[in-house]
Amino acid sequence: MSASSDQQDLGFAPMFDQPIAYMQRTREWYLALGYDNPYTWAHYTDVPFHALGKPLSAATVTLITTAAPYQEGKGPQGPGAPYNAAAKFYEVYSLPTGCDPDLRISHVAIDRKHTSMEDSRTWFPLAALRESLQEGRVGRLAARFHGAPTNRSQRHTLAVDCAEILRRCLEDRVDAAILVPNCPVCHQTVSLLARHLEAHGIATVIMGCAKDVVEYCGVPRFLFSDFPLGNGAGRPHDSESQRRTLALALQVLESAPGPRATVQNPQRWCDDPDWKLDYCNAARVSPAELQVLREEAESARRLARGMREASQASGRAAGLDPAAPQNKTLG
Questions:
Q1: How far apart are CA 259 and CA 45, in angstroms?
Q2: Which residue intervals make up region (Disordered) (predicted)?
Q3: Which conformational region is residue 176 in: left (phi greater than 0), alpha (psi within -120 to 50 degrees), or beta?
Q4: Looking at residue 326, what is its pLDDT?
Q5: Of 259, 204, 224, 232, whose CA–CA distance to 44 is shortest?
Q6: Domain extent for 228
Q7: How far is CA 174 from CA 107, 146, 152, 170, 306, in A?
Q8: How far is residue 166's CA from residue 279's CA, in Å, rounded to a whole number?
Q9: 327/40 Cα distance (integer angstroms)
């Protein structure tokens, strides 16, 4: 009997039906595109942990997102939009939790083949969080939520963005933060941010899909959903999935026994796991397609670099001291 038939007889899932190795996948992808300086991902052994010092029903909670506010005139940003470097943002932003913001994810490398980008509640769970507030599960929503720039430079994220988001959370007297990333680098960004917040007395939980990136960095609490990138808050157009996903994240936030607590969402994306083989997989792209993607990647990299340098120049003119960029390969 062959190994594959034996696995079928035993009811095993396909060997590839496991969390996607995004760090390896993106390394191989960028090598295929012609970039020979692989990205160095953030990695720590020690992980800060701050236990929520009060019941969640009495706590003030905020959201932190890597989604970008819609920018008119910056190209396609809606459902089905291609990767759009022009829609990126490079400074922390904050908006009131009492509004319904138009947030998009066209500026990051999500899974565009297997998700529609139609339902923002899959990457920004404010509506589900409001329901938890009405049910008494959460004590209070902070006055603002915050947008974290997806910087490839860990130095800039740590020195500038983490410090600024912490300052704003302290101003709002936040007890806990829910962080929702989208692309692989987004997952690293919010992992660094979660570590920083925890070290300064704010409990955190990440709702994400790139398990290897988050666990390699080392975070206090992580709710892993084995969904395509861009769906860390539940399946699109499925309010029950979104409600259950947030409820599980709140449970992890409240009851995690210590750092590096990962809980896997029991929901599945679909019955066929073949979607896991597509993301950044050069073996599934023809040479002609790869050449087109190589040209698009280089164009986007130049555009993003120009925008980043302009943002840094603006910061220096305003008397700020942006940290020097590093690890530019994924830009």
A1: 11
A2: 301-331
A3: beta
A4: 38
A5: 259
A6: 56-264
A7: 28, 12, 27, 6, 35
A8: 33
A9: 7
Q: State yes or no: pLDDT of 213 exceeds 80.
A: yes
b/e per residue 191-229 (b: at least 16 CB within 10 A): bbbbbbbbeeebbbbbbbbbbbbbbbbbbbbbbbbbbbb
Q: pTM here?
A: 0.90
The residues, any chain, with a CB within 8 Å of residue 17's CB and separated by 6 or more, are 273, 276
8 A C-beta contact, residue 151 and residue 71 = no
Lowest-confidence pick of 158-162, 208-212, 311-315:
311-315
Sorted by sequence, the CB contacts under 8 Å of residue 266 that are 6+ apart come out as none
**Neighbour tally for 174: CB within 10 Å:** 26
Contact call for residues 107 and 126 (beta carbons, < 8 A): no
76 lies in some domain = yes
* Residue 92 within any structural domain of the chain: yes
User: What total of structural domains would you count in the chain?
Assistant: 1
**How much is the CA Rg of the chain, to the nearest whole Å?**
20
Q: Tens of pLDDT along 13-27?
A: 999 999 999 999 999
Query: How far is residue 61's CA from residue 133's CA, in Å, rounded to a whole number?
Result: 10
291 within a domain of the structure (yes/no):
no
pLDDT at 80 over 80: yes
CA dist 212 → 23, 41, 64 (Å)? 7, 10, 20
What is the token pair recorded at 235?
């399946």
Tokens linked to 207:
């709702």
Ramachandran sector of residue 164 (left: φ over 0; alpha: ψ -120 to 50; beta: rest): alpha
- pLDDT at 38 exceeding the cut of 70: yes
Residue 138 lies inside a defined structural domain of this protein: yes
Mean pLDDT of the chain: 90
Tell me the β-bridge partners of 223.
207, 263
> Angle at the Cα of 250 (from 249 to 255), degrees rounded to 5?
100
Amino acid at 92: V
